[in-house]
Structures are given as structure tokens and as C-alpha cells.
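Weekend entry, working from home. Most of the wet-lab plans are on hold until the incubator is repaired, so I used the time to fold the two sequences that have been sitting in the queue since the last round of cloning. Logging both here for the record. First:
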Amino acid sequence: MRRTATGMLLVMAAIFVASSHYLHVHPAVGFIRAFAEAAMVGGLADWFAVTALFRRPLGLPIPHTAIIPENKDRIADTMAQFLRDNFLTPTVVARRMQEMNLARAVGDYLATPPDSASGGSRIRAGAAELLAEFLESLDPERLGTQVRGGLKAMAERVEVAPLLGQMLDAAIADRRHLPLIDAAIRWTGITLEANEDMVRQIIHERANAIVRWTGLDERLANSVIDGLYKLLAEVLVDPAHPLRTKLDEGLVSLASDLRQDEKLRAKVEQAKRDLLDNPAVADWWLGVWERLRASLIAAARDGNGAMSGQLGQSIAELGATLQQDTRLQAQINRFARRTAVGIATRYGGQIVQLVSETVRRWDARTVTDRIEGAVGRDLQFIRMNGTLVGGLVGVTIHALDMLL
């Protein structure tokens, strides 16, 4: 556009020179000459004005030229002040956030079908591809080791025994431990059935010679096994069985000891540390992490797969809830507004200072090139318009001069 504006100015100069030699040919030539003359004046004036913004015209030290390079620091401060007053004050942020329904917008995005051609779907696909590439670029063993170390450090800071005691107390209070007891009784019965021969062998070996000679050891073994089956069956079907009561009392005592007995708590903590230090646990975690990483990569690469199935259904349901539940929208929007206001309050001054210092550090040429690159096309249109408007004014004045 700069070449076009300059070319128009040169064309007007050529027309002015040519028409000046042919004024005697026809009166209309005077209008052409007046148009070209005024167009040159207008074009030159606007060229000077536009050039003076960014540099000194023809390199001459004319006052009040090269305005932007000479006032770079003041521009930086003005930009920072504008940013602070119009965007980063808590009042402005709160007012702008008040006008936004962020939760509804998120709901619309999440509820968008994954196979639609909407912009949100394209963004989601791009994000999935970016996630896949990021996961592939990671060093599996190194990252797995780092995550394992972080989890281990977190686990070491948590005292397990009191948590187990509280969980056991809550389970007993809600009677949620009963299915576990029933499962343990059934498992005991199945284990006994699978090892009857071993039980009989133990009884035979411990019986004395007289008992074995009379054959009472076999009857004794049968009685013991039958008695165990009968006991397990009675405990399983009778909720008020004394053995169940003893089990409940033992669990209540164990829950109390886990919370209050220092020796038991120390033993549990030592067992936890031994488990965390076990190399087998470390290898297991690395395997889990690698399978998880591979699954995430496959899901991200699988087009609509990442947004289909149970995960996609859950995300769509969450989006529908955010679209329809006004109370939930109000809560989320309030949280987002408070967060944005907090960020503006704590870091607004630092952001503004960063903008100001960044622009101040730019050299004058950088500032000039960036501003001129942003608005230069419109400035060249100003030159072109100045040339045309000047020409029209010249023709008008020439016509009035001839009439008068």
C-alpha cells in the first residue's frame, strides 16, 4: 500500500507538469491541472504527517517529528496505565465477569457431540492430538520414577493407622462390615473343603498310637471337620451368633487401637514404609504408569474414541447439567469471578509493570516497526485519501475562481 500511495503522488506530479504545458489547448485542462496541483499538496501533507509519526521526514531534524520513537517510554507507561484502568482493576474484572455466564459456556462446549463439525469439536480434537504428542515425548521410566517418588513422599507424610481406624469405625457404625465378614466365612469354608485331606493328615499324625490302632483318629478327624462346617454354617446364617459378636468386638477394639495405641500405630507405619521401599512395589507402579500412558495415547489417537463410551457420556451429562442447573451455574460463576478478582488484586500490578518494562526495553526501531506493521495499511489509505480529497478541493476552488 505504501508503493500505491507514493505512486499516486508521483502520478499527480506528472499530470501537473504535463497539464501545465497544455493549458492553452482547452479550458478543461485547467481543471486537470488544479486537481493534480491540489492532490500533490494533499498527498505531500499526509505523507509528512504519516512519516512524522514514525521517523524524521527525509532525515531532517524537524521539531515534533519521529513522535513514536521519541516518546517510547511515555507510550509504555500510557499502555500500562490503560491496561490497569480498563482491564486489571478488581472492580472492572468483577463487572466484566458478572456479565459472563462462564459455566453455561463450558456446559455448551462439553455437551457438543464429538462428531459435530463445530469449532469446539475441532479444538477438542487438536487438544487430544497435543496430549498424545506430549505423552509420547515423555521419558516413561524417568517420569514414572518421578511420579512414584512424589506419591511415596506423600504417602510417607500420611499416618495410615488413624485413617484405618476411622474407616473401620465408620464401617462398623453403618454395618457395612457385615458383607466382608460373610465373605470371609465363605472363603474359610471353601478353603477348608479344599484342604480336608491336609487336616485329616495333621490329625492322624498328632494322634497317639492307641488312637490310631483303634481307628478313632479317623472318626476324630471326621468329627473335627464336620464340627467346623457346622460352626461356619451357623455363623453365616445367624446374625446374632456369639462368634459374630466376638468378631464385632474385636473389630471395634482394633479400630480403637489403630487410633490410640502408639505401639500398634508404629507397627502399621513400619509396615507401610517396608511396603513403599519394596522394589516389587516400585516395579508394579512403573508398569501401571506405562499402561496408563499407553491407554491415554491410544484414546487420544482414536478420533472420537476419547469422547465416546462411558467417558464421553459422562462428559456430555456434565455439560447438560451445567446448561440446565442455574444454581450450579451461579456457584461456578461466583467462584470464577472471585478467582479472577483475586488474580487481578494480587498480580495486576505485576502484569502492568511487566508490560511497561517490556515496551521500555524495546529499542525505538522495534517499537516503530511493530506499531507501523499493525496500522501501516490504514495509514497508507490516509495518504491516498488525502491525495484524492486534495484534488477534489483543488477542482472546486478552480471552478469557483472561474465563476467569480
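Second, folded right after the first finished:
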Amino acid sequence: MLTAAGPAIAQDVPLTTENPRPNSGPLTGGDAAYEYAPTIIAENGVYRMWYCAQDPQGAVPGDDILYAESPNLDGPFTAPGGGDPLIVFEGRGDASFDGQHACDPSVVKVDGTYYLYYGAAVNDGVTTIGVARSADGLSWERMVDQPIITPANQQDTGNGYGAGQPSAVYLDGQFYLIFTDTTGAGALPSNGAGQFAWRSSDPTFATGTEVVTADGWQPFTPENSRGFSVANAFSADWQYSDELESFVIAHNNDAGSTTLTFLGTENLAEHPWAPATIEGPWVEGPGIVSTPDKHAVDDDGGECGRVPVDIMHASRADGVPPQDLVHKGIDVVAPIECETPTPTPTPTEDPTDEPTDEPTEDPTDEPTDEPTDEPSESPTQEPTDEPSESSTPSQEPTEDPTPSPSPTSDDDLPDTGAGSTGVLVTLGAALVAGAALLYRFRRGTVA
């Protein structure tokens, strides 16, 4: 399943898979001509999803990045507060590198800022990779006017797609990025499949970039930048599992399942765990549900070694570009021995004073006079025969309990979507046919 660009150190410890979650129904609505390549983060009780589509409401004909959210992984996913998903990022409509198409989003949040890595093209040419940032994940600004990654043009695999399909993870102060380059030296010669890995503390990868090679991480050079592929795949997504101490790549090798490949934290040629599979056919994707920094979501029960892996992907083609995003998943369980923390005993304090040899004080008073035999006063009352009444009636609460706080409303998030008109529906149908031709021309991702 992995490329033979360098010898892999395979440990391949088997994992158990449990709690399978079959395909849900379609997650989104709207009039987009197709939808695929989602990126999903779980944040503040909401699943936030960005994905690729062509929406007839877009200002620029071409691929758009849409946004939708839901409190439930099985949807429905809507714009904040309801309604059709929103277009949040699209081509500029000019001759720039992303003038026509913006697609294959990957979103990671670092120190309060969202970063969007995306594939881009103009005039249906080769794909390159750009980056944008946002304070809320809805309104984006491009960080640079040029692509941050372009095709290496190191070999001709017969696939002219280029460099795209990025997926980002943030770990220990660095951005980790995998991406496709069908022209890279380490791509599969038969079709250009492969995933190349870079890392840098700079989100634009303009400085301090290291790349994975057959000899591990090395400083970037044009020659080594695409020499070693970590997975034979198109359209992959990854996250980091702190529980398993490894990266997890979700990709496709067999038509009837999604493959999960596990890579070592520092040496991506190591495979600490054997591959696992999530059954069920898919067309393109998938995106792994992750925390905002693209780490694995914790198991609700806190069980040692258990990691829930939920993915979303396009599930239907029917002769047209991918469509109908669905959710499915499994739990992977690793044979990990977890240690129960031992309480640290609190040390007793040493006495602060040394004992003295002599008593500290002499008695200050002389003995008092002889005790008197008679009491000073006579009792003033006769004892009562009956006990006094003691009343302790129960008390009803005086106020109703304070109601639990309601979930944070999504109504304060901007809703920039607009309803479809009859004319746009007709236009959307025409775009489906046009998108099919366009998609076949530019994706080039059939393994």
C-alpha cells in the first residue's frame, strides 16, 4: 500500500476495530453541482465542515469552498442558524493562480487563527496550492498572492494534474502538510499517485521548511522536496493521534473501503500499527473528523488505547462528479498498557523549633483560697415535668431551580447565503452537465 521510494521500518502491530458506524444519509442540501474533499473539525460542541463544490450562486464559475455545520455527525449540515451551505471562498475571477478554481480545503486552527490550505487553478490549467487565514473560519484573506507549492516537474507520469489536495496538521509548534504532486520524483510512475510530507513553523512554508526523504526529515531543497512518498494515494487526509503516538492517513486503496495507514511521529517511514480499514465504497475524499489542530478526537469513555475514527466522503458518482457527502467510522483499539497515576504522598513538615531543656515559664499565681462548701445561689426554677416541644417542619423550596444554560446560539454568526430562485435551479442543472466534463478534465485522480 505504500510506495517503495525507500525502505520502511515496519512494526505493524495489529489493531482491533470495533463499533462500526455505517454510511449515513447525505449530509448537506443546496444546489451545488457536486461536493467532495471535506475537512471537518469538532469545536465547542459543533462539527464544522468545509468542502469543495460548484455552487450556481458563486460569483466566479469554477470550484468553490462551501461551509456547513451541525451538532450531529450524521447531519443535517447547514449554514450557521440554518439554510443552505455558504460559499466562503472562491476563485478571484482573474488571471491569478487561483483565478478560476479553489478546492480541496484543509483547515487547521492555531492560536485562535484558522488556516486554509487549498488547491487552485486558472483556465483549467495545472493545480497549485495556496493558503489563507481567518479569525472565524468564514471570512478569509489570502496570506500570499502566489502559490506556496507548485508542481516539481521531476517526471512525466502521464498525469498532468499537478500539486494539490493538501492536508494540514499542527504538532509541537509546526505545520505538517501532505499533498499530491503527480510530477514529483517519488510519485507512482504509472499514474502519479503519492503523498509528500513537509513541515515548518511558518504557515506559508516560505522559511524553515523540512521535507521527508528516504533518510528522514531533511532541510528543503528543490531536488529532495518530492523524492519520498509516504502513501500511494490521491485525495488523502491526515491527523495526529496522541493516544497512538502516530499520524493517521485516511486514503483509498481498494474500491470497497477506506484505508487507515499509521506513520511514526518523527520517522514517517515507520509504521507503528498495522493498517486498518473502514468498509464501504466511496468516490472521493475522505476527511477525518479532528480537533481544531487536526488531532484525533478523544474517546468519550476515556478507554486506554481506543481512538474513534470518523470520516466523511463523497458517496455517489452516477456518471457525474462526486456527490452526496456521508459519514461513517470505526473505533480502533491498540494494545496499549496505560499506567494509573499513583498519588504523590504529601511530605510532613519538619518541626520548626528545637525542644528546650528547661520549662519556659514559672507558675505565676499562688493557690487560691479554700473552696466554699455552699453554692453561691439557689436554683431559681423548679424543673418542668414535660419536655419542651421541638418543631422541625420540612420546608418547601422557595424558588424554582435555576434553569441550565442553553447551548450557545449560532445566530450571531454571519449568514451570507442567499436562497435559490427558479432561474438558478435551472442554471444549476446545466452546471451539473458542464461540471461533469470539467471534472473529468481536471481532477486526474483515478488510481
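Plan for Monday: verify the second prediction. The first strand starts at residue 9 and ends at 13.
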